[in-house]
Amino acid sequence: MKKELSFALNYALNKGFQIHPDAFKILENVDVRKLEKIIKEIVREKTKQKMFQINQDDLETYLGIKDDPSIQNEVKVLSDPTDNITTGEGVKGYNALFSSRFNKLKRIVSERPESRMLKSIASVKSAKSEDDMYICGLVTARNAERNITKLHLEDPSGSFEGIVFDNELQKVAGTLLSDQFVMARVSLGKNSGFIIKDIILPDIPDQATNKSESEAYAAFLSDLHIGSKYFMEDEFAEFVDWISSPDPVAKKIRFVLIGGDVVDGVGIYPNQNKELVCQTIEEQLDKVEQLLDKIPKNVKIIIMPGNHDPGRRALPQPAIPKKYNSGLWDRENIIMVGNPAVVSLNGVKVTMFHGQSIDDIVKTTPGLSYDKPTNVMKHLLRARHLSPIYGSQTPIAPEMQDLMVIDEIPDIFHVGHVHRAELDMYKGILLVNSGSWQKQTPFQASVGMTPNPGIAILVNLKTFQVFHENYNSNSNNVLQS
Ligand code: D5M
Ligand code: FE
Ligand code: ZN
Q1: Which of residues 143, 168, 200 is at a domain's end?
Q2: CA–CA dist 85, 181 (Å, integer)
């Protein structure tokens, strides 16, 4: 026993006090430098009351870590693709998806003043006017040629080709993603080609942030990869234990959000079985259940799938199917949602998306990289779409409705996938990339990806103050912000 602890115990015993074993457990976890002061004050207080036992309640009251029933844990699922998936067939489905994307985003930009001047591509092409005109459409191609950039846009009335001459605007054009929605100010040039004079993205308007009335905390996690031999089981178990510890922040946690890649899956990449400790989905999910069961039941756990989890691979993904693990579905405090999902936590809106599209975006966009995922997240918010590029590495289902459009403006945008924990802000939205709980894999080492695993990000939903708990013993492994 530490000498400070035995001093505290002897002090209380000598004054005729008994210490309950639960109270002793709390004392064991208190900062030793504070022990003497704590015990003396409690002894003084209880002597006045003529009560000579020190119990858990006394310590929790003194330390301000009493479970506070006024801290709410209300979850509302505002949007979830699980029951809204209606996939079209072939070309028809593809057309429906793109027409839904165009219409939803046109409605979003209709709030902007310029949109009153919007014309269809067909009418602009037949107008032959040299005045400025506004069009909108999906980007079908962009090509940088010598010192100009050509852009192709498409709306339901037809397709448009225009040239960007201005250097600054060419930089903007260079960051546009294929199939992304944009608005453009255009005019007819001298030699009857169109000039693009401005590019306007749907973006996020200034808005007030929703806050929780009580000081509930949410923990943001993703990419646990349970079942992989690189899953940091000890560190994760330590974090889970911490949630039920007397730590004042831990005591206020009411939500745990898991943003996909909960398990490592089976058959996700070649020879994966050699890197698994659990060879079946069922075994992997059993382990998830066991670990999450240690979280106190007043904490609501929201589980969203990623590209390693069972169910369909194409976006949007339904929730992890119940047939693989009914235990998770049956728990009162667990909420299974699809990817992407929007949830409200005591009124704070969180958009959760695993982040598969980041792979395609970093490949085609100058200035964006895997080590700064929140910059890619800003790009998605400006485009008001979670996965614009169609037909690249990220599989997208030809849904009748484009469920990847960012309709709702969140207060917090939670993404994972790239295994780099990072925080940022964009137009009042807190951006959280929740990193991972999987050590660097041989594949990641071979492509030079350095994850910063083992970090839990915690947000006070009343003040938006951010904390983190780092369980990684490597001192270079830090949260990025
Ligand atoms: O993805 C973890 C990270 O590794 C994510 O940033 C993508 C990257 N990754 C994974 N597989 C590939 C391939 N095949 N090519 C390029 N980059 C890849 P996770 O979803 O956890 O496997
Ligand atoms: Fe992952
Ligand atoms: Zn992933």
Answers
A1: 200
A2: 22
